[in-house]
Queue: 2 jobs
Job 1
Amino acid sequence: MLNQILRFLLDTVFGFFVFVLLARFYLQLLRVPFRNPLGQFVTALTNWLVLPARRFIPAMFGLDLASFLLAWGIEALMVFLLYLLRGGGVGSAAGIVAGIFFSLALLELARFSLYLLIGVILIQAVISWVSPHAPLAPLFNALTAPFLRPFRRVVPPIGNVDLSPLFALVAAQLLLIPLEYFTRTVAGLL
């Protein structure tokens, strides 16, 4: 029972920070302005981690590598701690095991990124139906536009209803299937 409680707490706390760091990375990647309540929330929660890390991890090609690498490191640490809680040991092949942990963490970041995309698309779709002039509507439109654009080129609106979010959600779900398979395969190496 204590093991389950610890696993839940680790997954919740570490997972929360990984999601927020990934959100910061994608907000900057997609050039979304931070002058909105969500951007300010993400900045306030992550500045204490990201700003010191930027001294050692510079941005490259307009990418906020500090946020991404911090998310990756926190995820790898969480995978490692969960592995130890299950009774796993490192043994003599510490380098190989560390490579597996970082590979698992990278696969988990890809999975979290898809879940973030799914959540943002759902929120954007609901906002566009309920209150298209809401203060956060431009933020969610900017976040989803690059992902919905390819579907909007192929699928025309039907009766003034944009079905591109539905197709983007299906595509994200389809990408999750092989990603979870690869994650289980890599986890099986431990």
Note: Residues 2-187 form one domain.
Job 2
Amino acid sequence: MELTETELAGVFLIEPKVFGDNRGWFTETYSEINFKRFGIDTVFVQDNHSYSAQKGTLRGLHFQNAPFTQTKLIRCTRGRIIDVAVDIRKGSPNYAKWVAVELSAENFKQLYISKGFAHGFLTLTDDVEIQYKVDEFYSPECDRSIRFDDPTIGIEWGAKSPVVSQKDQNAQLLSESDCNFIYE
């Protein structure tokens, strides 16, 4: 398992080793020992599984406010996505900056997103499944969204007319959000 730091401190690309032969393949997608070796001591408490039927489906940008902020470990197990993390920690030198990584069933890459970031993804194929771990349980009271097309953030999704939920279409701009993340 290899870890690569992205341009945003707290967001890491993780590439597990894949062992294959004529029968198929095997990979270890999470190992507490390896994560501790990387200096990550996150304790995950919930696994989530998401399915998107149509290419061009955009989900996000999502996060949970304190006291139920979430660290996420995301992987795509069917199809391909562009996975995005946005720094929304007030006072951060990278505030409103974003990083995007292609995750797919073929490349086995994962994205680790620390607390203080919003998360979203765009499907690049039909029939996409993502699975992700979180270190805090879902809290409807703390659940928040920021507009995927917020001009302050300026994410280059590469989709002219994405399929978006009503919730995401009506999300607030970052400047209007009650996000309570503070950079430390």
Note: The domain at 2-176 is CATH 2.60.120.10 (Jelly Rolls).
